[in-house]
Amino acid sequence: MQILKNIKKETYTISESAIVLEKELAWLSEVIHTRIALYFEHETTLTSIQDVLPPELLNYNTPYVNFIKHERLSVEERLLLILALVPHLKPALLDILSTKNKEYDRRFSEFGGVFLDGYSSFIPTAQTALFILTGNNIAERLRYQPLVINKGTIIKKDIIQKQLSKSSTSDLNKVWKVAQEYVDYFLYGKPYEIGYSPDFPAQKIDTKQSWEDLVVAKSTGKKLQEIRDWITHGKTVLEDLGLEKRLKPGYKSLFYGAPGTGKTMTAALLGKSTGKQVYKIDLSMTVSKYIGETEKNLAKVFDQAEQHDWILFFDEADSLFGQRTQVNSANDRYGNQEIGYLLQRIEDFPGVVILASNLKDNIDDAFTRRFQSMIEFKVPDVEQRYQLWEQSFSERIPLATTIDLWKIAKQYQISGGVMMNVVRKCTLQAVAKQETEITQQSFVMAIQQEMQKEGIVLT
């Protein structure tokens, strides 16, 4: 499942979003008061919370409304969603559920809820959600319990904050609160992003460049276009043409070549040019000394990537996907098991996975057969270096017009990454010296210094 895939772009105002949420909160408030009245057998004209009709939202075009429409949420799931947003919007709405049971001088356990550090208000739990839906009706409770534990849309899509109340492992004590990343989407339309951490060893990568700025060999460009075509038309190939029974979903590609040849930037450009977020896997954080932790951490990455239709980029993949070791110890055996797990998850992943390596031969043959493409990133030739030099400097502090750029491109055979370091160095020097252009001397000196730093022999 892909959480926000295909949801149409929203054109709305903050005031429209506020109107929608106020309507939903008012509906939830009436539902809760109805549930309380029914539960304690207070006088009421209603016989069920289903008698409290949800507001009509079809004419609105906010992120919250479009999510409800796209996911086809039932009335019950919609109620659970707005309940989970209450702590972020109007916590006082739930004060009625913090009422004490005077007979036992404590809160009603059937209401659920917790008071967390840093919050002065009642925070609902899954138990709270279940009480609102079912009251004390056991049959209804059995019917709806899967909805708040493992079957509901917002549960399966990890929209609910994964946090249990203290000293508890019960799913019903799980805090019923939308994770902040999704709050930003529902309220402001901000795309979902997850934070980088040891438990989630992946980081979003971006680029300010455009696809037109990419300078690669023609053969490389054609292979890259194939990936873009798959991202755009893969669904048509599999579903509309009926090939999903014969072809595995997803696309796996190996980028290989010397450092600084543009593998990471190209991955970011593939995402930017096709509207996909790209997450780079930090393999140094992924491989854990604790048995099983690697699989656990990577499972989180793959699960999130599948839900949100991310492109996954494994940098320096040969360090993890290289030749598997012979089994001489328990650590070797577990290490090979983890590699096997990764190979399987990548093979089964329905989206785009890119692995980057300095050398193609470093990747295990058992996996290279599964790539849809293997794309070499070479050190740019003289024409490509000339083009890169031409487009890389600022128009405000350009190269001196006396510099023979073709001669420079022909003389110094360096990668695009080294070239960008040169641009940074000599532009910074020009700014520091308050110069209006970059001289031949500073340009060539910066090139030679970067080459020496990289261990490249000057010719």
TrEMBL record:
Please give the InterPro entries that the UniProt record associates with this protein: 26S_Proteasome_ATPase, AAA+_ATPase, ATPase_AAA_core, P-loop_NTPase
What CDD domains is this protein classified in? RecA-like_protease
Q: Give start-end of the signal peptide.
A: none
Extract the GO molecular function terms from the UniProt entry: ATP binding; ATP hydrolysis activity
Alphabetic keyword roster: ATP-binding, Nucleotide-binding
- Start and end residues of each AAA+ ATPase domain: 249-381
Record's superkingdom?
Bacteria
Protein family membership: Belongs to the AAA ATPase family.
In its UniProt entry, what is this protein called? Answer: AAA ATPase central domain protein
